[in-house]
Write a structure and sequence with these properties.
The chain is an all-alpha fold. 51% of the residues lie in helices and 0% in strands. The chain is built from 7 helices and no strands. The longest helix has 22 residues, at 107-128. 41% of the residues are buried.
Amino acid sequence: MSSDITGLREALDRTAEIFAAVPDDRRGDPTPCPDFDVRTLMNHVVAGNIMFAAVAGGEAFDGTVFEQDHLGDDPAGAYRQSAEMALAAWQRPGALDEALSFGGMPGSVVIRMHLTEELVHGWDLAVATGQDTSLDPELAERALEVLRPVPEEMLRGSANFGPEVTVADDAPSGDVLLAFVGRNPAHPITTRD
């Protein structure tokens, strides 16, 4: 199994733990994503797994998946199911080598984009619900490796990634990743007002 699949599995497992610990009464709380409360962020993450599963499986990119409600009455179960689908798709022979319908990028790049989504949105959800926000430094470095070469116009201005935030030169890689995608580890909920 490739190290990227192993790393993604670790990130998915960690996010599953965060999902499972979200209290029902916190679903309307704000998150570091200004357009998302806790519930809409959870749905976005599940939709992302479904989208990445389709793309890794060789299907065409379909952004309408983000317009649907995937959580039902069991957000943690919906997350686990979507994560399993994504991992199975990434293990498809050729998935990491082929140009995928995610901007024509090779799977080896797209899987790290998926990793980035899991790390950052897992952190967002942990912040919003008062959970452990630590990020694996090695996984954060892998995510940064794929993000740094992405042109600014493709990276910024979405609900996901805002302007880069300044952090100390000796900040841990997790904080560097968060700052790169517009999160402020010191003031997470007010990052992008």
